[in-house]
Amino acid sequence: MLAACASGEGSIAVLERRDLELERATAAPSHQLRLVLAYFDDAWTPDAIHAAVRRGAPILAQCSVVITKAELLRLAAPARMRDFHTPNSRELARALRLPTPTIYFVADTRQRPAFEAEAIGRGNSGTRPELRDTVWVTRGARDLEIVLAHELAHVLMDSGEHSEEPGNLMREDTTSRNTHLSGAQCARLRETATANGLLQPIR
Length: 203
Fold this sequence. Notes:
By secondary structure, the chain is α/β, with parallel strands linked by helices. It has four helices and ten strands, in the order βββαββαββββααβ. Strands 1, 2, 3, 4, 6, 8, 9 and 10 form an eight-stranded mixed sheet that branches. A two-stranded parallel ribbon has the order 5-7. A hairpin with a 2-residue loop joins strand 1 (2-7) and strand 2 (10-19).
């Protein structure tokens, strides 16, 4: 067990770590992605997260990106940190100091407007630097593998832009019908994420 911080309300800690087994989704990837997946076990199960990452990996494989490591962390934290809320989530991320990109699986959101998931890249983290290069997913998120791929793409491209192209992953509505990434989107994803240290080229 790795304890990160303690307060009068309770500790902030990583209670358990384990690596998820993932099949390689593309035969000859050009870039590798290492993910940290942090969850609260009163809101999420490891099996649900594992299944979503496994099903989402082929979507990123369109861009010749392979997930080579996915580390699952079970967290402890005060109850107020189990929902996404900028002040509390900044405190949680500051205490844990996890490698990025990190996906946090939380119970709910207290942000307004409320979204099922939010991505925070370099461009929208100026006033909340602790949250840079993270994704926050609530328990109510539907089509979870699509949500994960969509929000990760926002972070990797460092862009909040959405697409109007039919079937595109970056449409505002994240559904199983929207999984395609264009060549231009893939190029931006690889170039930006590599420059920001979130992807590593495979030599």
